[in-house]
Amino acid sequence: MDRVRNPFAPGAGTPPPALVGREEVLENAQVTLARIKEGRPAKSFLLIGLRGVGKTVLLNRIQDMAQEHGYRAIAIEAPENKRLPALLVPSLRQVLLALDRVEKFNEVVKRGLRVLKSFAGAFKLSLGQFDIGLDTDPELGTADSGDLEADLSELLIAVAQAAAARQVPMAIFIDEMQYLNEDELSALIMAVHKIAQRRLPLLLIGAGLPQLVGLTGKSKSYAERLFDFPKIGALKGQDARNALETPVRGENVTFETVALDEVISVTQGYPYFLQEWGYQTWNMADASPISLDTVRAAHSAVIQRLDDSFFRVRFDRLTPRERDYLRAMAELGAGPHRSGDIADVLEVNVHSVAPLRSALIKKGMIYSPAHGDTAFTVPLFDEFMKRIMPDLKRRKPRSPTSASLL
Ligand SMILES: Nc1ncnc2c1ncn2[C@@H]1O[C@H](COP(=O)(O)OP(=O)(O)OP(=O)(O)O)[C@@H](O)[C@H]1O
Ligand SMILES: [Mg+2]
């Protein structure tokens, strides 16, 4: 069929042709945004889910909603190699300068700019480009101690006060939040806590892999009461059907029921996979309705595409030992698996691979759904590991048993 009219949108953060199954989270976000805007208490929230379930898409959607409510929004993605102060300062500066320009002089907004300058100085952020338009003296003694926890709170409170002074609510969006280090996460949580206590109009909306829940709890034990953690998962039942049927209906195309069932079964309802399968089956179909045969014929092409991109980029970031660990996990199936069972497959002591497991959690490849359990953060990664590493490598040869030594 006409590839130009293909409605599906596989990609990272690409808005889907039909954003289905997320009504509740969007409705809650709507209420939270409206409450904070009115100066009422509401919890900041962190969207939690595996790779490819649609966290970034939701974050972007909620950012649009915030802007419709008149919020000033800043959006950052926590990378693995840049630190939080360096990420926040340029966007906060933009917001403060915009608030400064709104109307006549406002001392609270000016103070926000001075505190930002102190903070930037304390964290030795290159002032080159940053300084332009900011002919302000730093607010000495505020947000400049060099202790991130204290300084970030002071900075964000000053920013939130500036927002309040202009009666403009603010939202900070942070994607891939599991990549923040413990100090940064602690600092951020404490800042949100203090802002909530003061009823200032600043909201934090984040997204991350499942390990983010444990990381926030570890950083600050009150985090679980401070935030909501909406779970974003695979699409179930009618939602999964709608994710496929609604977009094609817009082009006067349908799926045979059995074809739809097949796509839902192979994708297990994971949004990214639904988009990939939808996209390829559309391109391979000759006419409507899209048949089961077409879905089956598209199968190997879709797997190939996933192997070359979605799975492959993650695999390429792994060390040989990390690959072996994940391959051993895959041997046991989709998971979750007991760490002891994975070590058994590798024929090593569970303690000897504990650092490897931690490194993989930090990289965002696996997480621990319950104590001692390990699961993939990338859906269907077990099957990929078996395709890319058909042979299971034992980490070291089995040591001679006492029987053979005799
Ligand atoms: N509710 C939905 N219905 C249908 N498709 C969706 C839905 N949400 C997201 N998608 C599609 O899924 C894909 C992945 O979305 P997105 O990049 O937001 O996921 P993610 O959770 O941020 O993944 P990652 O953890 O890898 O960053 C995109 O192609 C998007 O169009
Ligand atoms: Mg994302």
Note down, in words, how this protein is organized:
With 406 residues, the protein is of the alpha/beta class. Helices cover 53% and strands 8% of the residues. The protein has 19 helices and 8 strands. It has helices at 23-37, 55-68, 84-102, 107-122, 128-131, 148-165, 182-197, 211-219, 223-226, 237-249, 257-267, 271-284, 292-308, 310-315, 320-331, 339-346, 354-362, 381-388, 402-405, and strands spanning 44-48, 72-77, 170-175, 202-208, 227-228, 337-338, 366-367, 373-376. A 5-stranded parallel beta sheet has the order 2-3-4-1-5, with helices on both faces. It has a 3-stranded antiparallel beta sheet with strand order 6-8-7. Helix 6 packs parallel to helix 7 (182-197), helix 11 (257-267) runs parallel beside helix 13 (292-308) and helix 15 crosses helix 18 (381-388). Magnesium ion is lined by residues 12-13, 55-56, 175.
What is the structural class? alpha/beta
Level of helix content? 40-55%
Q: Mean of the pLDDT scores?
A: 91
β content, as a range? Answer: 5-15%
Shape: globular
Roughly how many Å is the radius of gyration?
25 Å
Let me know the largest β-sheet.
5 strands, parallel
Helix-strand string: HEHEHHHHEHEHHEHHHHHHEHHEEHH
Q: Can you tell me the residue ranges where pLDDT is under 50 for at least 5 consecutive residues?
A: 397-406
Task: Map the helices and strands.
Elements: H1 23-37, E1 44-48, H2 55-68, E2 72-77, H3 84-102, H4 107-122, H5 128-131, H6 148-165, E3 170-175, H7 182-197, E4 202-208, H8 211-219, H9 223-226, E5 227-228, H10 237-249, H11 257-267, H12 271-284, H13 292-308, H14 310-315, H15 320-331, E6 337-338, H16 339-346, H17 354-362, E7 366-367, E8 373-376, H18 381-388, H19 402-405
Parallel strand pairs: 1-4, 1-5, 2-3, 3-4
Antiparallel strand pairs: 6-8, 7-8
Helix pairs in contact: 1-2, 3-4, 3-6, 4-6, 6-7, 7-8, 11-13, 12-13, 15-16, 15-18
